[in-house]
Design brief:
By secondary structure, the protein is of the alpha/beta class. Helices cover 25% and strands 23% of the residues. It contains 8 helices and 16 strands. The chain has helices at residues 2-33, 81-84, 89-103, 123-137, 156-165, 240-252, 285-289, 312-319; strands spanning 50-51, 57-63, 107-111, 141-144, 198-203, 214-220, 226-229, 232-235, 276-279, 293-296, 322-327, 336-339, 342-346, 363-373, 378-390, 397-405. The strands form 3 sheets. An 8-stranded mixed β-sheet has the order 1-5-6-9-11-13-12-10, covered by helices on one side. Strands 4-3-2-14-15-16 form a 6-stranded mixed β-sheet. It is globular, with a radius of gyration of 26 Å. The termini are far apart. It binds 2-acetamido-2-deoxy-beta-D-glucopyranose (NAG) (2 copies). Residues 79, 83, 86-87, 91 line the site of one 2-acetamido-2-deoxy-beta-D-glucopyranose. InterPro entries: Calcineurin-like_PHP (IPR004843), Metallo-depent_PP-like (IPR029052), PAP14/16/28/29 (IPR011230). Keywords: Glycoprotein, Iron, Membrane, Metal-binding, Secreted, Signal, Transmembrane, Transmembrane helix, Zinc. Pfam families: Metallophos. The chain crosses the membrane at residues 6-24.
Length: 410
């Protein structure tokens, strides 16, 4: 009897001690070792793959040459005398917020010179400011580098890694070897020139035959920064390793559409090769040489490109799927022009710290792909359209044009 009482006392004592230590740890010690548990941040992952909307459209906002410095401490270049005193990088941010708000794109693409390295004391801080409007919108965004991004304190590889880890970013430093939606299975392909070569798939509209297939492919390339050729300074160029990777990606998409129901007849399929769009920063030499046909927009600046022609246009022509290419670099050109069947479109200068023309508003480009309608549901891409908007107070929309229409191909 007595030993049973002792035993119960021991058990109670043990339980009490254990409970006290547990409560002490939970409510006092743990909470003191971590200051604010709610504020722990993981990368906010965008939904991948990208998809057309159920209204049959997919819209991309191209932002070229934001040229960001130190935010509110960095002044605007080439604005009117009357505008100079109250104009900083914050005006660039404000323009981005407004254009995202009015266009509500499905993807935002930054085509390089996102920061102007020489004016950005801390590259990472400037990048947080550059991409903040995209991140706040929760819209997936992709970026490539220009020739000025690495002129601060981060090199090109560091910049791309940083960019790819930011919230809602779908950017990649290296392309992946495998096409799979499971990121754990993807291996980065590091034996390729540059940082920021990758591709994104855009799948069909939900509930359509092509909802599980890529029907619009987006190619991103690193066009580098500077180079010296035969002792002469020039811009860098897209290398053969990049083009060879791209040819492989493009080939993979040829005839790859999968339908749950094999008997389905898709009426609009003259080529089983989905259209593609390419994005990079520095123009290719053919844009300088011409001839360029059907120019829509302004051509007011000499094309600044590399003296080396590495065969980018030839590669695009042989691939067959690239319908339009979107570039930046020359802020005072905002035109689209056709070279041998492929459109080359400038975004036009976006950022206020980048050079421009006073009184000629900063601008941005929008690209919209539209699906054709089958008997019951959306099918593949029927049309690719583009237009621009000005930062003129009312975001004037102008220069709308069709870049590609499946019906005119027959
Ligand atoms: C820059 O932003 C300020 C504050 O919103 C505004 O007053 C000014 O007009 C803007 N300047 C330009 C050139 O857009
Ligand atoms: C797409 O994939 C989903 C999930 O795997 C499946 O339920 C659906 O039937 C597929 N749709 C088509 C059109 O292949």
């Amino acid at each position: 009897m007595e030993s049973a009482t002792k035993w119960i006392h021991s058990l109670l004592f043990f339980t009490f001690t254990f409970a006290s230590l547990y409560l002490l740890d939970t409510f006092i010690i743990s909470s003191r070792l971590s200051t604010d548990y709610q504020n722990i941040k993981l990368k906010k992952k965008p939904q991948l793959p990208l998809h057309f909307r159920s209204d049959g459209t997919f819209k991309i906002l191209q932002v070229a040459d934001m040229h960001y410095g130190n935010g509110m401490l960095t002044r605007c270049r080439d604005v009117l005398e009357s505008e100079f005193n109250c104009c900083t990088d914050l005006n660039t941010t404000q323009f981005l917020r407004k254009i995202i708000e009015i266009e509500k794109p499905d993807l935002i693409v930054f085509t390089g010179d996102n920061i102007f390295g020489r004016s950005a004391t801390d590259a990472a801080e400037s990048m947080f400011e550059v991409f903040a409007p995209a991140i706040d919108s929760g819209i997936p965004w992709a970026a490539v580098l220009g020739n000025h991004d690495q002129e601060s304190i981060m090199n090109r590889e560091e910049l791309m890694s940083f960019i790819s880890l930011m919230d809602y970013s779908v950017s990649q430093t290296f392309p992946s070897t495998k096409v799979t939606s499971d990121p754990a299975e993807q291996q980065p392909m590091t034996d390729i020139d540059g940082f920021g070569n990758y591709n994104l798939e855009v799948w069909g509209a939900p509930g359509s035959y092509l909802s599980n297939s890529s029907i619009l492919n987006l190619y991103f390339l690193d066009s580098g920064d500077r180079a010296i050729v035969d002792g002469v300074r020039t811009y860098n160029w897209i290398r053969e390793s990049q083009l060879s990777w791209l040819r492989g990606v493009s080939k993979r998409f040829q005839g790859q559409w999968k339908f749950a129901d094999q008997s389905v007849e898709i009426p609009l399929l003259p080529v089983m090769h989905p259209p593609a769009l390419a994005f990079f920063h520095i123009p290719i030499p053919e844009i300088r040489q011409g001839p360029i046909k059907d120019i829509v927009g302004t051509y007011r600046e000499y094309v600044a490109c590399s003296s080396v022609n590495s065969g980018v246009l030839k590669t695009f022509i042989s691939m067959g799927d690239v319908k339009a290419v979107f570039i930046g670099h020359d802020h005072n050109n905002d035109y689209c022009g056709n070279i041998k069947g492929i459109w080359f479109c400038y975004g036009g200068g976006f950022g206020y710290h980048g050079y421009g023309v006073a009184g000629w508003p900063r601008r941005a480009r929008v690209i919209q792909a539209e699906l054709g309608k089958g008997k019951e549901a959306w099918i593949d891409v029927e049309k690719i359209r583009t237009w621009k908007r000005l930062d003129d107070g009312v975001l004037t929309k102008f220069d709308e044009q069709v870049l590609w229409d499946i019906h005119t191909l027959r």
